[in-house]
Amino acid sequence: MLRIGETDLVLEALGAPPRTVIGDAVNRASRYCDGAGGGAVLMSPAVHQRVGQLVEAEAVSVATTHEGQQPAYRVHRIPDDTTP
């Protein structure tokens, strides 16, 4: 089992490799990766709620084809001392 954000994914070994993983969590993760661009880090609001006090981030949105704008946070800096 694999966890992306708040959702568990199950990859079943059907057919020959390469395997395909599908589902809402995979789609969201793909949108964050595409929206981040090279060298950038985006996180979901759920992840930001859990670790936002440990990083410097700004609220942004990621354009999607079917859902419109998806909220996200762009991480600018992770301070050296991230002890809560």
- The termini sit apart by 29 Å
Mean pLDDT: 77
Low-confidence stretches: none
The largest pleated sheet is described as: 3 strands, antiparallel
Instruction: Output the number of helix runs.
Output: 2
Give me the count of strands: 5
Number of domains: 1
> What gyration radius follows from the Cα positions, in whole Å?
15 Å
Order of helices and strands: EEHEHEE
Please give the share of residues in helix. 10-25%
Spatial order of the strands forming the largest sheet: 3-5-4
Q: Which structural class should the secondary elements be placed in?
A: alpha+beta
Element layout with pairings:
Layout: E1 2-4, E2 7-9, H1 24-36, E3 42-43, H2 45-51, E4 56-64, E5 68-77
Task: Describe this structure as you would to a colleague.
This protein has 84 residues and is an alpha+beta fold. It has one domain (2-77). Helices cover 24% and strands 32% of the residues. It has helices spanning 24-36, 45-51; strands spanning 2-4, 7-9, 42-43, 56-64, 68-77. The strands form two sheets. A three-stranded antiparallel β-sheet has the order 3-5-4. It has a two-stranded antiparallel ribbon with strand order 1-2. The longest helix is centred in the middle third of the chain and has 13 residues, at 24-36.
